[in-house]
Every structure is written in C-alpha cells, then in structure tokens.
Design goal:
Blueprint lengths: L2 H16 L8 H21 L12 H7 L3 E7 L1 E2 L5 E5 L4 E14 L2 E8 L1 E2 L22 E4 L6 E5 L4 E12 L17 H16 L2 H10 L5
Parallel strand pairs: 6-7
Antiparallel strand pairs: 1-9, 2-3, 3-8, 4-5, 4-9, 7-8
C-alpha cells in the first residue's frame, strides 16, 4: 500500500467497526496513529508481545516482517577507560540490537584475530564482568551493552586476556515515517496489520465502553 492507501484502509476499517457512529479523525491524526502503530508493530516483532519469547531470530515470520529494517555492519572499536573495555559509536539509525560478533585476539586460550559471538547484557550487569585485583574474570565471549542515558555508544567488555579490533553488529534500524506519499518501509504484507493496530489505538482513544469490546475482538494475535 501507499501511504494514502493505508489512510484509506484506516478510514474503511474504522467506519466499519464503529458503524459511522464514532468521531472521525483528520488525515494528520490518522498518520499519527499509523506511525505509532508502525512503532508498536516493530517492537512486538522484535521482542514479542510483552517482551515474551520467542525472540526475533527464533521466529521466521518475525524476521520476514522486519527484513527491510535488519542491518549488518562492521565497525572498528576503541579502548575504553578501564581494562578490557572497548566501545564504538552506535549507528545513527540504530533502534534495536539483534546480535553481534567481536574480532578478538587473546592469549588464554590463544585466538588470533577471529570473530566470536558476543553476549548482550543489561547495563547494570557490567560490573560482574569488570576484572580487578579482587575480581579476576575469564570469559572468551565478550559481553555487549549500551548506555542510552548518556551516549549513543555500544560498549564491549572483554577479559584481561583479550583485545578487540572490530565488532560485527546486526540491528534493527529506525523506520522512515509513513506519509501520504510514502508508505511504511516494511514489506507490503505487513501494511494491513499496521492499519489494524492503528484502528485499535484510535478506538482506545475514544474511551467508550462500546469500543472496548471491539478493541479486544480486533486485537492482533501473536504468532
């Protein structure tokens, strides 16, 4: 669908559900619903409803739905302030992390400039992987975390035996906005699902008990 076709589909679906008895929306308002719905669709496909498994890489339909937004890049990294810490500036279009591999050289065991899989951790978990005189760490696979509060950096923590030169990053990029002249960048088969989500959001805004049952009935099921 084009952006205008998505708007038209919104009106048709919304009017059918409400039987023309609910307040209407202007085009700008419909576009707002559609773009919010696109964001919700991407989040649900990436993490599952309520951030429940299966994750993106475990579900082929989710991968197919988000394929236009899945980006793979390789970036060099720089040493951080503490031993074993490295970082790279996150891509400008970075939205959600999928996976990464670091190019490591280490002495125990010996690895010479090979890519190994990284483990993504929460920011607050980093302290468990920091090595010091009282916490000698040993993990072949580096851990990765992001600091969204202060920087756009992606941080990679290795143990004292490891140095890292590059990171191969797979991520979901931010979508372009749906506009009258430009539809969602997602695959065509996802457009109606985005419209359905937008209509549910529009019904919820009405806060009318008559529409709440419609919202429940029209709620998109997880795969």
């Amino acid at each position: 669908m084009t952006g205008q076709e998505m708007i038209d589909s919104f009106y048709q679906y919304y009017d059918r559900i409400t039987n023309f008895s609910a307040p209407g929306y202007e085009t700008d308002e419909v576009l707002l619903f559609l773009n919010n719905a696109q964001d919700e669709f991407i989040k649900d496909r990436a993490f599952g409803k309520g951030f429940q498994p299966p994750a993106l890489e475990d579900n082929q339909k989710r991968v197919a739905d988000l394929r236009p937004l899945i980006t793979n890049i390789t970036k060099s990294v720089a040493p951080g302030a503490s031993d074993g810490l490295h970082y790279t500036t996150g891509p400008s279009d970075y939205l959600y992390y999928i996976t990464s591999m670091a190019k490591v050289t280490r002495t125990n065991p010996t690895i010479n400039a090979e890519f190994v899989e990284c483990k993504y951790i929460k920011n607050e978990e980093q302290k468990k992987f920091l090595h010091s005189a009282v916490n000698v760490t040993h993990h072949i696979n580096p851990v990765v975390f992001s600091d969204n509060y202060f920087t756009n950096n992606l941080w990679i923590q290795a143990d004292s035996y490891t140095t890292i030169s590059h990171i191969g990053l797979s991520y979901i990029s931010q979508p372009t906005a749906i506009e009258t002249g430009a539809a969602s960048v997602l695959e065509d088969h996802t457009h109606q699902e985005i419209v359905d989500i937008a209509v549910r959001q529009a019904l919820q805004v009405q806060q009318d008990p008559r529409w709440q049952s419609q919202v429940a009935e029209q709620k998109i099921k997880d795969e």
